[in-house]
Amino acid sequence: MPNSPLILSGKIVSSAVKEDLTKRIAALKQQGIKPGLTAVLVGEDPASQVYVRSKERQSEKLGLNSQVMRLSEETAEDELLAIIEKLNEEKAVHGILVQLPLPRHIDAQRVIEAIDPEKDVDGFHPVSVGKLVLGLDGFVSCTPAGILEILRYYNIETEGKHVVVVGRSNIVGKPMANLMIQKRPSGNATVTLVHTRTPDMGFHTRQADILIAAAGAPEFIGAEMVKEGAVVIDVGINRVDDASRERGYRLVGDVDFDAIKDRVSAITPVPGGVGPMTIAMLLSNTVKSAENSLE
Predict the structure, then answer these.
(1) Would the pLDDT of 286 be above 60?
(2) What are the CA-CA distances from residue 230 to residues 9, 152, 185, 226 (Å)?
């Protein structure tokens, strides 16, 4: 039984990704192209504000042409769609990101579908999703793409392994399952996807060689749900009250880290695991879009 698991650091992997991106951005600039990413933020959601600021800082640090459009909570859906249409036409914009969640009066799916698939760096457009399912080259949703990059970086074999994904969201669960079944390196796995309506979820999670938890519930995965020696990828990031902390809370994942760390062979921490990879892969998709514009 492993006692000292390998800690899969998203900070380390994202640094490696950005180092590669720096070279690719420099090559693009020699051809007169500066990759451009425009984020559109509607409303005052605190988590979205923090996330967009982080994207903005990291984009600028890498030398991307970074722009954030901050719109009021009352922005009409048609007004937002008109902005997206304009961004679709701008050659200097290679990536368009509309930060979710959107205010309730705006149809998020309609907004996603309005983005030019060639600029869909979030990987949410039906064209991007369809390409993923078919195994065609396209933009992959950033969090699943980041998880794949972590597995590659640490040479974690997926071929012939049993991958269990907890959660069926369009952002993580579904694209993650589709990535893992692809007939290519860092794929070729047998995949089980479980969710809130799965009877005896623990039966399935205990079969996992690689367990990917994207349940959205703090410390939901306990020791009794994990096979000894498994690799665990924790996608969750949840605030839980903690009076002992100065800020009154602490961040935990969907996995009970302390309870399972002595059972597993490798695990991502929270924070510092999957989180840094999401932004790194957004930047990677933007650079890829800029490279595609040369073709």
Answers:
(1) yes
(2) 17, 16, 20, 7
Side-by-side strand order, sheet with 36-42: 65-71, 36-42, 95-98
Q: Which residue has the tokens 């369809």?
A: 130
Please write the tens of the pLDDT for every residue from 149-164. Answer: 999 999 999 999 999 9
Local confidence band at 40 (pLDDT 50, 70, 90 cut-offs): very high
Lookup: tokens for 104? 């309730």
Helices (H), the chain: 10-30, 46-62, 77-89, 108-114, 126-134, 142-153, 173-181, 201-205, 257-260, 275-292
**pLDDT above 60: residue 2:** no
Rounded CA separation 157/189 (Å): 9
| 76-108 CB burial, b ≥16 within 10 A, e <16 | ebeebbebbeebeeeeebbbbbbbeebbeebee
| CB atoms inside a 10 Å sphere around CB 206 | 16
**Are 249 and 286 within 8 A, CB to CB?**
no
DSSP string, 64-118: -EEEEEEE-TT--HHHHHHHHHHHHH-TT--EEEEPSSPPTTS-HHHHHHHS-GG
Please state at what angle helix 126-134 crosses helix 173-181, rounded to 10 degrees: 30
Active-site annotation, residues: 55, 99, 122
* Greatest pairwise CA separation for the chain in angstroms: 58
Strand partners, 249: 241
**Domains within the chain, CATH numbers bracketed:** 32-116 (3.40.50.10860), 141-275 (3.40.50.720)
